[in-house]
Write a structure and sequence with these properties.
The chain has 436 residues and is α+β, with helices and mostly antiparallel strands. It has helices spanning 5-16, 79-95, 100-112, 121-132, 138-153, 161-187, 194-209, 217-242, 246-263, 267-282, 284-287, 302-310, 392-397; strands spanning 26-30, 35-38, 40-44, 47-52, 55-60, 64-69, 292-293, 299-300, 317-318, 327-337, 340-349, 358-363, 369-375, 383-391, 402-411, 417-419, 423-429. Strand 15 and strand 16 form a beta hairpin. The two termini are 57 Å apart.
């Protein structure tokens, strides 16, 4: 295959641009319309040796359509070089339709070098002011770091590198110093609660990642964990004794679940915690004779048990991304056909439900939401009866037939909806007869 001077010129430019590269800097485009980002590349006779994702590879140059380098951050390119690279990329775009999207992104990177970077100084200063006016906790620091990183990405010619580095270092020093003080205060708490221990553990991890963890902290954190474990066990017993009711059961159950999920480390500790959970669940009828606990600790009423025994509640569940559900859904009377889904169901909590905005979400196996229903959840109530309706139009608009699942979700940080129950099978919906 005859190679042009332009081909070899760009090939040489690409290989030379890799001599100081530490990450994927050149796109290896092959004649079969496949491509791969490479960190290093060396031409040896009629072969090309390159490293991609840490793996060394060797191929014949006859397989190579072109090597296309990525512009380096902080390096300035003259107009002829930029034009040359844009033309080379566009030539490969015409030749390899399957790679058009990837090549277009690379072309845009080169075109962006024609734009003069605007003065980012005021925006950098504003990010620093925003951090100083915030709570300056871990969430605020992470937000600052993320926003600074996105702003730095706009500095193509690296004209603000010094200002970026100075602000980043200044905020990092302030943050680590303040968090060392917060950690020191947490480690001094004589009878810590699980939430306090978890904050201390997270801070320790963050400080360690920045080589800023005090040498004495790991030993004190271990002591704090044991104090949390012992103190929480004592609190669970006291709460149940002070309130021998379903409310007391939920409070004690919440404490033991926290210990199981976050504090138990050794097999001995976990066995002790699980024995306490099992005993608490067995004793629920003695605490409140109107309820019995299932194997996961959900308090079920006679109505719930009847639904389960009748088969209405014996439906499969899907955990999805949820590891530890705090609520269980028990379907009751359900009608499902082409006209829609109409169901009555119960929502049961095994811990005091936190205040917030809750929704019942009907979903299909692909997790596409069909319908949501608001549910007023109060921390003082553990069981809710809810009617759910989803019209045939809603189903048809979703282009759906098949299994419908229902799950309870709660609005979390930044408006994201977090599941608090497993997805529970509700009904099977078939097409109308005239569509079969």
């Amino acid at each position: 295959m005859r190679k042009t001077a332009e081909y070899y010129g760009i090939m040489l430019f690409a290989i030379l641009s890799l001599t100081m590269a530490g990450h994927a800097e050149v796109l290896v485009v092959l004649h079969d319309s496949t491509s791969e980002w490479a960190e290093t590349a060396v031409k040896e006779g009629d072969t090309l040796q390159y490293t991609a994702s840490g793996k060394k590879k060797r191929i014949s140059l006859d397989r190579v359509s072109q090597l296309l380098p990525r512009p380096k951050r902080g390096k300035t390119y003259d107009e002829p070089t930029i034009t040359k690279m844009v033309i080379a990329v566009e030539k490969q775009m015409r030749k390899h339709k399957a790679l058009r999207k990837r090549l277009q992104l690379l072309r845009d990177e080169w075109k962006a070098r024609r734009r003069v970077t605007k003065d980012l100084g005021p925006q950098i200063e504003e990010l620093e002011k925003t951090y100083h006016s915030s709570s300056r906790n871990l969430a605020a620091y992470n937000s600052f770091s993320s926003n600074l990183g996105m702003l730095r990405f706009q500095d193509l010619s690296a004209t603000h590198t010094v200002q970026f580095d100075e602000v980043e270092q200044r905020i990092r020093v302030e943050f680590l110093a303040s968090q060392r003080k917060v950690l020191a205060g947490l480690l001094k708490i004589a009878n810590p609660e699980p939430a306090q221990y978890m904050v201390a553990r997270e801070l320790s991890s963050v400080l360690k990642s920045h080589d800023a963890l005090p040498p004495v902290a790991p030993k004190l954190l271990g002591k704090m964990r044991l104090n949390t474990l012992r103190g929480s066990a004592s609190r669970a017993a006291k709460r149940l004794k002070a309130a021998p009711s379903l409310t007391g059961y939920l409070l004690a159950h919440e404490i033991w679940l926290d210990l199981e999920q976050h504090l138990g480390e050794s097999e001995k500790e976990l066995a002790m915690i699980r024995n306490k959970l099992d005993a608490l669940r067995r004793d629920l009828p003695k605490i409140d004779k109107a309820f019995v606990a299932d194997s996961s600790g959900f308090p079920l009423s006679k109505e719930d048990l009847a639904a389960l025994r009748s088969g209405q509640g014996k439906f499969p569940t899907r955990t999805g991304d949820l590891e530890v559900p705090s609520a269980r859904i028990i379907p009751g009377v359900t009608k499902a056909d082409a006209s829609g889904v109409h169901a009555k169901l119960a929502i049961v909590f095994r811990v005091p439900p936190p205040e917030g905005d809750y929704r019942l979400r009907l979903a299909v196996p692909s997790k596409e939401t069909i319908k949501t229903t608001s549910v007023p959840i109060s921390g003082a109530i553990h069981r809710y009866s809810v009617a759910v309706k989803c019209s045939g139009k809603d189903l048809r608009d979703a282009g759906f037939q098949g299994d419908v699942y229902v799950e309870l979700v709660r609005e979390g940080d930044q408006g994201k909806w977090q599941p608090v129950s497993k997805q529970t099978f509700l009904a099977f919906v078939s097409k109308p007869e005239h569509e079969h």
